[in-house]
Each structure stands twice: as structure tokens, then as C-alpha cells.
């Protein structure tokens, strides 16, 4: 593999120039564990090698927040050690893009999902997963990262074409920048769409709700030798992702994928965020309450109660607002339940080994019965 196939270009070369003089080498981080990183290092730019690297104290100290620390996808300058010596990250290069999310809840901490991600593919369907408001959240998140948003309305084989197209139109109306495709992983269309973006040097993330077909699509990209799975290991009870937490994987036909357990959580988080945001107006009103810890019950000087009395705020809306935390808890439980259902399906599907289209469609119908 070459540096260029990993995404090295003039932008990074220019940023790297001062480090070259010190005898350091450019490297792209492909894996992150609690103790170190793995990287492709370009000692020979035409033939990069995978090695383990550690962070220098300086880079660690210079990072003001966790989000500034090197992350999977980042380009760094590495000083190669001699025999029995560590290879050390001496500096990180600026990011072209950074796909991250704020941690759920009140915390302002930012969690980096992947650095230098060029394309974020959101997989959804035109059935139970179709949700324009959630998609808006994805578009905001992706827009902020500077990556290109691509949507796959997958499982097109399960719905009439007019219905799929109507969903596509609805999503196109939400974002002028995003590419919206109607696909089916079963016919190979999904693979074609993803591959059309995966040129040499391009890094992609695949996100979306549980059960929409991400693993199916991604496994098609990997080919035979590398399988992405959410299945739980029967022996250890752990998913694959608990051992290999984040990684960047070069694909056999060009391009790279960044896979990360955080992606799975984005879906839940966007729902939660959407819910919170839909009450932003009430929250703003609450700032006018006399007491900061106002419970908006019988408290004196409650701006929200006053608004209800005046008729500017609907009583039902206030009740839902007061139940917000319960609602979020419910959302989390639901997400968990769906995850468990999907894992059960995956296991069952594996047993059945449904290879032909009709069997798969039947399985899909069985699964739908399990949903609610
Ligand atoms: N009919 C139909 N079924 C599909 C399609 N794509 C995936 N499936 C099926 O949908 C089910 C869920 O697919 P997965 O690929 O496991 O979904 P996922 O998004 O990876 O789900 P998580 O791993 O839970 O995040 C599987 O049984 C797939 O065979 C499609 O285009 N059409
Ligand atoms: Zn109040």
C-alpha cells in the first residue's frame, strides 16, 4: 500500500514539511487501544507498513481536550525507535475533517469518531426507520464535520418504487449537499453506490440504526476475509467491538472504512437530541423562572406556569416537557430492546443461512413481526 492510497496529499505534505527535517515519518493512525495506537507508517511512501506507536508526553500535554488528542484517521509525525525502543508520535497534523459528536447529556465533551473522514454514509430504509427529523440531525452532524453526506435508503426490494422515491424526495428536500440513493443490499445496488465513492485515498464511515443493513453492506465491501459483525461471541459473551474498539480498514478495491462502536450509538443519541431540541422553546422560557431550581409546579414566579395561564403554552406540551427525562429513558430502553431483537435475528439468520432472495425476504417479514 502507498501513502497516497491512505489519503496522503499536498495538504498533509505541506503540514508535514517541518517534521521531515527532523527525520520523522508521516503515519496514519488506524487503531486505538487504551495503551497505544497502530499506524501505517510511510518510511517508504510507496510501501507503508503497520506498526505500533505511542504518544509522546508533549503531544499529550499540548492537547487541551480529549478531542485534540490523536484519533483514528489522524495523520501524525512518528519518530521511529531503534531495537526494543518505542516508535513515538511527536506531532499531529491538522485535520481536514473531523466526525465527532458531543457526549450525550449536559456534558460539553466532544467525542471524536473519526478524523479525516471524507464521506459519511447513513443507511436507513423507507419503512420503520424512515425519520426525516433524525435525518436532519445526521445532516447537521455531518455538515459540521466537513465530510460529504451520502444516504442509502436501503431494502428497496421490500417497498414499492413510488414509496422509496417519495422518501428520497423528502430527504432531498432537507439537504442540498447530500446525495440520496435508493438501494438494496440484496441486489448489489448498495455495494455499487458505496464503491462509487470509495476511490483510492477516500475514507468513509457507515452509520445508521440497528437492522438497516450496515453489516450486510460493509461485509460486501470487505469481501471474504474480513467480516464486520454485531453478533455476540458465544464463548466470551462479548461482541467483536469490545476487543477491537476502533479501526480504519483499507478495502480490497480501494478506499478505507472507519468502524467504531460509537457509530452504533449515534442513532440513539440523535433521537434523544431531537427530543430535547423539540423542547428548546420551553427550556428558554424556563430561564425566566424566578428560581433556578424551579420545578415548574407550584413554585412562585414560574414563567412556564405563567405562559400556560396566559395560553401561550399548551398544557399538554408542558406535561410532556416535565416527562422529558422519562421519555429519554424510554427511548434508551427501546433502543436496547431493538438491539437485542436484532441480535436474536442475526443469530437465527445465521442458523438458517438464507442465501437466496426469497428466503431472505421471508426472514425479513418474520423479523418485522418481532418489532414492536
Ligand atoms: N430485504 C432486504 N433485507 C436486507 C437488506 N439489507 C440487509 N437486509 C437484512 O436486514 C437484516 C439486518 O441487516 P444488518 O446488516 O445486520 O443490519 P445492521 O444495520 O448492520 O444492524 P446492526 O448490526 O444491529 O447495527 C439482515 O437480516 C439482512 O439480511 C436489503 O437490502 N433488503
Ligand atoms: Zn418554572
From TrEMBL:
Q: How is the cofactor bound?
A: Binds 1 zinc ion per subunit.
- EC number in record: 3.6.1.-
Amino acids binding Zn(2+): 289, 294, 296, 302
- Which residues does the UniProt record annotate as the domain EngC GTPase? 115-264
| Cellular location(s) | Cytoplasm
Taking the first listed entry, what is the main subcellular location of this protein, grouped into a coarse class? Answer: cytoplasm
- Say if the entry is tagged with keyword Zinc: yes
Q: Which Pfam families match?
A: RsgA_GTPase
Name the keywords, alphabetized: Cytoplasm, GTP-binding, Hydrolase, Metal-binding, Nucleotide-binding, Ribosome biogenesis, RNA-binding, rRNA-binding, Zinc
Domain CP-type G span(s) in chain numbering: 106-266
Gene3D superfamilies the UniProt entry points to: P-loop containing nucleotide triphosphate hydrolases, Probable gtpase engc, domain 3
Swiss-Prot/TrEMBL cofactor(s): Zn(2+)
Its domain of life reads Bacteria
What does the sequence similarity comment in the record state about its family?
Belongs to the TRAFAC class YlqF/YawG GTPase family. RsgA subfamily.
What does the UniProt function comment say about this protein? One of several proteins that assist in the late maturation steps of the functional core of the 30S ribosomal subunit. Helps release RbfA from mature subunits. May play a role in the assembly of ribosomal proteins into the subunit. Circularly permuted GTPase that catalyzes slow GTP hydrolysis, GTPase activity is stimulated by the 30S ribosomal subunit.
What assembly does the database describe for this protein?
Answer: Monomer. Associates with 30S ribosomal subunit, binds 16S rRNA.
**Would you tell me the protein name for this molecule?**
Small ribosomal subunit biogenesis GTPase RsgA
Organism equals Luteolibacter rhizosphaerae
> Gene of origin?
rsgA
